[in-house]
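Subject: Imidazole glycerol phosphate synthase subunit HisF

B.,
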Amino acid sequence: MIAKRIIPCLDVKNGEVVKGTNFVSLRKMGDPVEMAEYYSKNGADELVFLDISATNERRKTVIDMVRKTAEKVFIPFTVGGGVRTIEDVTALLTAGADKVAINSAASQNPELIKDAAFRFGSQCIVVAIDAKKTSHGSWHVMSHGGKKDTGLNVIEWARKVEKLGAGEILLTSVDCDGVKNGFDIPLINAIVNSISIPVIASGGCGLPQHFLDLFEHTQVSAGLAASIFHEETFTINQVKQLCIKNGVNIRNDRFF
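Prediction pasted inline below.
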């Protein structure tokens, strides 16, 4: 059985790590490169950087951040935010990112997923899906930082991006983001049970127990969190110890 991964997420805006609730009310948390280096040395299996307010003008800033991170971090890291073209993917991978996450542009131009996977390999391409529950009980794909309802059904979209060649899905619950009441287990199971590629679950973690619940009640490949790690409420070590104690196959060779 493949070991589960624990992944800190660094949402970056104007060169600083920020965190909010339901994608709003952002708070400054620190320098992304320094935080990445800290997590790399303290048990993180991977890292995810998301430039949550990316524009073409700030692309150079993000590229510089990726280069500096690649010099200091020796675990895989994914970078996303404002990725619209093959050239964007090329620039991030060339700067040192291991994987690139595509979100809004993928829903607008699905062929970008196919083209990127063909050129760089599926293992490099992550499709980020921000999901919000509708009044009818289904979930819709949200774009533009969780602000725009695309009208796409989340399950149908997940199946499509898999067929287009995505190697992994980063699934975030907009409803649970930053709330700290636990991961959205029904949403996660709906996706995991519909596709065969790995899923990283994001949104809602507030306790180490929430990671344990995630791994015990779903078949996700990884859990991602921000607030509990950035605010030093809990450490990755504490999460891993709890999971191992309860029989979860967790990556631990570098840390314990």
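The chain has one domain: 5-246.

T.
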